[in-house]
Amino acid sequence: MHSTDIKPIQAKLQQAEASLSHIILGKPQQIRLAISCLLAQGHLLIEDLPGLGKTTLASALARIFDLDFQRVQFTSDILPADITGISIFNPKSQQFDFHSGPVFCQLLLADEINRAPPKSQSALLEAMEEKQVTQDRQSRPLPSPFFVIATQNPSEQAGTYPLPESQLDRFLMRIEMGYPDSQAERELLQGEDRRHKIKSLPAVISPDQLLNYQNTVAKIHISKSLLDYMLGLLHSSRLSPWFACGLSPRAGLALQKCAQAWALLEGRDFVLPEDVQTVFPSVAAHRLIKHSDFLNEPMDDLMQKLLQQVPV
């Protein structure tokens, strides 16, 4: 992998970022983290209050990358078959025909996933991990690329079911949108409806190009000393008094992939410590459970303390 091979990819990704910035105003960090999660072949969890652009970000990403898009609104009465599909008996053929659900797409938006009961939440587990759906003892592969964006309301809101740790761990990254600044909000109020703008967005990157970029991410170089630094972060989280349990090896693999994706977005064919530090809170925070003595400590503060504790 040479830096000359990276520059054309970086230019296309910057074009995608610029297009998204016209839709999601004042959120360049969140946009870049979402793209890096897609490049790293993971799944993204967006947690925040309703109305802050979570669904808009997912719809715009699908348009920019020309991905087959489906949206599922999770409710308290949704069934697993509403997501994965169902087999219906055909009297003519005297056989059961499988009718695929919305999960058979390239980008699935699981909107307000924590409003669904655990059984329906778990319908996504196999799809997210194995990129396939098993129905009637038959495994059916999902399209490639396959990317899940789930939105989650804050747990203190009415009608929510907390996601179990095993499902949270399936999400490569978690981000928060946050309120826009005054200038971005003024532009939002004065401008065209975001939904209309998304419909007119041209595709910047094709699915085949995206697959190529995802393969490129895996080739981004990580030095032995940087691997030692990432291992130090993992081990420090396990020994820390702030957390009831530390980061798993799967979290370490997620951190590696996201750091490589971030380096690609920066136009480099190697990873720097700054790449690891930038993506670390989004990769680690939702995988860690605070110790009872530190429940009032903001998770963002604990993430920064953990980063400061481990020497580069």
List the helices and strands and how they pair.
Blueprint: H1 3-21, H2 28-39, E1 44-47, H3 54-64, E2 69-73, H4 81-84, E3 85-90, E4 95-100, E5 107-111, H5 118-121, H6 125-130, E6 132-135, E7 138-141, E8 147-152, H7 165-168, E9 173-175, H8 182-190, H9 194-199, H10 207-217, H11 224-239, E10 243-245, H12 249-265, H13 273-284, E11 289-290, H14 299-309
Parallel strand pairs: 1-8, 1-9, 2-5, 5-8
Antiparallel strand pairs: 3-4, 6-7, 10-11
Helix pairs in contact: 1-2, 2-12, 11-12, 12-13, 13-14
Structure write-up:
The protein is an alpha/beta fold and 312 residues long. The chain folds into 2 domains: 27-198, P-loop containing nucleotide triphosphate hydrolases (Rossmann fold, 3-Layer(aba) Sandwich), CATH 3.40.50.300; 216-312, Helicase, Ruva Protein, domain 3. The protein is 46% helix and 15% strand. The chain is built from 14 helices and 11 strands. It has helices at 3-21, 28-39, 54-64, 81-84, 118-121, 125-130, 165-168, 182-190, 194-199, 207-217, 224-239, 249-265, 273-284, 299-309; strands spanning 44-47, 69-73, 85-90, 95-100, 107-111, 132-135, 138-141, 147-152, 173-175, 243-245, 289-290. The chain is globular and about 70 Å long. The relative contact order is 0.16.
